[in-house]
Write a structure and sequence with these properties.
The structure is a single chain. With about 210 residues, the chain is mainly beta. It is about 10% helix and about 45% strand. It contains three helices and twelve strands, in the order αβαβββββββββββα. The protein has a five-stranded antiparallel beta sheet. It has a five-stranded mixed beta sheet with strand order 5-8-9-10-7, with no helix packed on it. A hairpin with a 2-residue loop joins strand 3 and strand 4. It is elongated, with a radius of gyration of 20 Å. The two termini are about 30 Å apart.
């Protein structure tokens, strides 16, 4: 029942991958796209470059705090018991920095997704005291600026600073995705600077074309 309820709540999200460029890297994202190295599927376009590093590979559900509700359940006496139920915009807000903080140049790949998730569970339950009673005060909604967005995005939920993991059942990327390049310099007044952005299109297979 909980999985059925969850399956009709969070239906969209996005995938974000961030690759660190080698220190002496001289290319640019436009060239990588033109050469066919930076593709819509999000593979590392610098895989053959020494010093390239995958810093982030995350799937983030599209939390909409003004309309999504969070139900909190505990499994007791062989059944699920509802402990709390509230709109996400009533949760405590916690800012977080989603992008790398180490100085350097980076490439990011962003793709919107259609997805279905399992109900969320605490990723590291051993850090919780089983005897401690649940408290809504310990639920936090994480917010971060994504790239050069002017408004913050809800990127996750934690309980007592422990991550809530939403297991994936289905994940389908959209045909369009975006590659961006940016730099991080902690000596500047604006540490993260976006350099350029370019849209890429996923190639459809014959079977995919026939299904439309």
């Amino acid at each position: 029942m909980l999985e059925e309820l969850q399956g009709v709540s969070l239906a969209t999200g996005f995938c974000l991958r961030i690759h660190r460029c080698p220190i002496d890297w001289q290319s640019d994202i436009e060239t990588l796209v033109e050469q066919g190295d930076a593709v819509a599927e999000g593979n590392n376009p610098m895989a053959n470059e020494e010093g390239s590093l995958l810093c982030c590979d995350a799937i983030i559900p599209d939390f909409q705090p003004d309309r999504h509700w969070l139900g909190v359940y505990a499994f007791r006496a062989n059944q699920w018991k509802l402990l709390d139920n509230f709109c996400l915009n009533e949760a405590k807000n916690e800012p977080c920095w989603f992008y790398p903080t180490e100085n350097g140049k980076y490439l990011s790949w962003h793709s919107k997704l259609q997805l279905t998730t399992k109900p969320g569970i605490i990723a590291e339950p051993d850090f919780l005291d089983d005897k401690e009673e649940y408290s809504r005060e310990n639920v936090q909604l994480l917010w971060s600026l994504m790239a050069d967005d002017k408004e913050m995005t809800a990127v996750g939920i934690t309980y007592k600073n422990l991550r809530i993991d939403w297991g994936l059942i289905r994940c389908k990327p959209e045909i369009f995705s975006t590659w961006s390049s940016f730099s991080v310099n902690d000596m500047e007044s604006k540490p993260l600077e976006m350099i350029s952005t370019i849209c890429t299109t996923r190639k459809l297979t014959t079977s995919a074309l026939a299904s439309h």
